[in-house]
Design brief:
three-stranded antiparallel β-sheet; 16 helices; six-stranded parallel β-sheet; alpha/beta
C-alpha cells in the first residue's frame, strides 16, 4: 500500500513524548523519519522506565514513541557534526524540535538560519509555554502543565484534592495538534512551494483541550465550575452521568432520561426527580440514590436491562479486559515491531484506516546511531 506521505523526509530533533509521538504519526502515514540524537546517550526517553521494563536495552517508552524511525547521531556542538546535519536539513521536508526557546538558535539551527538553507522546509517547534512569556524557560512536563491549567480540578469528587489524569494527555494532545499543523503546511507548500513555521506549546494545547470548560467560564461571568460530590465524571453534566459500583464491579452511565432510567432499573426513588432541571441542580442526591440501588445487582444484570433499551451505558474494564474484548480484537490495534537484530516489541498501530486498509508499520525503534553510516553515504554528508 502506497501511503500518503511516502515522499516526505522528516528530521526529528525532539525527545521524550510530544515531538517524537508526532513524528511516529507521520511515519505511520509513510514519511521517512530520521531521528537526530546526540552520541553516547541519545534521547533521554531511552532510559525513561515504566515498571522497570526494558527491551533490547531501551525502555518500552522509547520503543513506543520512536518506532518506524532511523537514528542518526551527530554532535551538534562540533563544526563537522553540525555541517552534516545542515546538509540533511537542505534535503528535508519537515523538521521537528522541542528544545527550550533559544537553544536551536544557539546551535545554529534556528528558524531563520534554517530557512536560508531550505525555504521549502516545514519547521515545527514544540515548547512547554511558548517562545516568549513569563514561563518560557520553565520545564514543560505533562503533570506540571496539567496542574497549571486546571485540568486536575476537573477530576475526582468535590471533596477530593485535585486529581490529574493518569496518562500524559497534554503531551499526546499536543502531538495531535502538531501533526495537524504540519499536514496543513505541507498542503500549503504543494500550492505555493513555500515552507512554514509551525509552533505549538503544551500550555496552549492544554487550554484548547478544555474548550468546553473555558467557553462556559468566559461566558458565565467567570464563575468556576463545581465538581459533583458523588461519582463525578463531568463538571457540566447532571445525573446520572458517572461511574457506579455494582455488586461485583462497576458500570458507567452516560447521558439519558432519569425518568426512563428509573423505569429500567426499577428504582422508584428516582421518580421524585421528574423535572429535568433537577437532574443537574440535585445531581448529588440523585447519584447517591443510584449508587445505593446499583449495588444490589451485578454489572451484567444491569447491562441486560439497559442495553436492550438503548440506554447509554458500559462496563468499566481494565486493560486486560479490554484487550480480550471482541471490540478490541476486531479493531486489531496490536502489532509486532521488529529491530534489525530480531528483537520484538508488541505495541499499538496507527488508529487510521485508509481506503479500508489498516496502517501497520513493523519497523521498530532504532538502536542509537544505527543508521548514521548509511545516511552519511546516501546523502553524501
Amino acid at each position: 500500500m502506497k501511503k500518503p506521505l511516502d515522499h516526505i523526509l522528516v528530521l526529528n530533533f525532539s525527545q521524550y513524548l510530544a515531538g517524537p509521538w508526532a513524528a511516529v504519526k507521520l511515519a505511520d502515514l509513510g514519511a521517512r523519519v530520521i531521528k537526530i540524537e546526540r552520541p553516547g546517550g541519545g534521547d533521554n526517553s531511552r532510559r525513561l522506565l515504566l515498571s522497570n521494563l526494558v527491551i533490547d536495552g531501551d525502555s518500552t517508552v522509547f520503543h513506543s514513541m520512536n518506532r518506524g524511525k532511523e537514528s542518526y547521531t551527530a554532535d551538534l556542538k562540533s563544526k563537522a557534526g553540525l555541517e552534516k546535519v545542515r546538509n540533511l536539513v537542505r534535503q528535508a521536508d519537515v523538521l521537528i524540535e522541542n528544545f527550550r526557546p533559544g537553544v536551536m538558535d544557539k546551535i545554529g539551527l534556528g528558524y531563520e538560519a534554517v530557512r536560508e538553507l531550505n525555504p521549502a522546509l516545514v519547521y515545527s517547534s514544540v515548547t512547554g509555554y511558548g517562545s516568549g512569556g513569563p514561563l518560557k524557560d520553565k520545564p514543560g512536563q505533562d503533570l506540571l502543565v496539567q496542574s497549571l491549567t486546571g485540568i486536575p480540578w476537573m477530576n475526582g469528587n468535590a471533596d477530593q484534592p485535585p486529581v490529574p489524569l493518569g496518562f500524559p494527555v497534554v503531551d499526546e494532545f499536543t502531538s495531535a495538534n502538531l501533526v495537524q499543523g504540519i499536514l496543513a503546511a505541507l498542503i500549503k507548500r504543494s500550492k505555493d512551494s513555500k515552507g512554514a513555521r509551525i509552533e505549538i506549546s503544551l500550555l496552549e494545547s492544554a487550554l484548547d483541550f478544555q474548550f468546553e470548560v473555558l467557553t462556559v467560564f468566559l461566558n458565565n461571568g467567570g464563575v468556576l465550575s463545581e465538581r459533583s460530590g458523588v461519582n463525578n465524571a463531568h463538571n457540566f453534566l447532571g445525573a446520572p452521568y458517572g461511574i457506579y459500583a455494582t455488586s461485583d464491579s462497576f458500570i458507567a452511565l452516560s447521558m439519558g432520561s432519569l425518568t426512563r432510567l428509573a423505569e429500567l432499573l426499577g428504582c422508584d426513588a428516582l421518580n421524585d426527580y421528574s423535572d429535568p432541571e433537577s437532574w443537574f441542580v440535585r445531581r448529588d442526591e440523585i447519584k447517591l440514590l443510584l449508587a445505593d440501588h446499583l449495588k444490589t445487582d451485578t454489572t451484567a444484570a444491569w447491562l441486560g436491562r439497559l442495553e436492550p433499551a438503548d440506554y447509554w451505558c458500559a462496563p468499566v474494564l481494565n486493560t486486560e479486559e479490554i484487550m480480550k474484548h471482541d471490540a478490541a480484537v476486531y479493531a486489531d490495534m496490536v502489532q509486532d515491531i521488529v529491530r534489525s537484530n530480531g528483537a520484538v516489541v508488541r505495541t499499538t498501530r496507527s488508529p487510521l484506516r485508509i481506503d479500508g486498509e489498516k496502517l501497520f508499520n513493523p519497523a521498530a525503534s532504532p538502536v542509537l546511531g544505527e543508521h548514521t553510516e548509511a545516511i552519511d553515504r546516501e546523502f553524501s554528508l
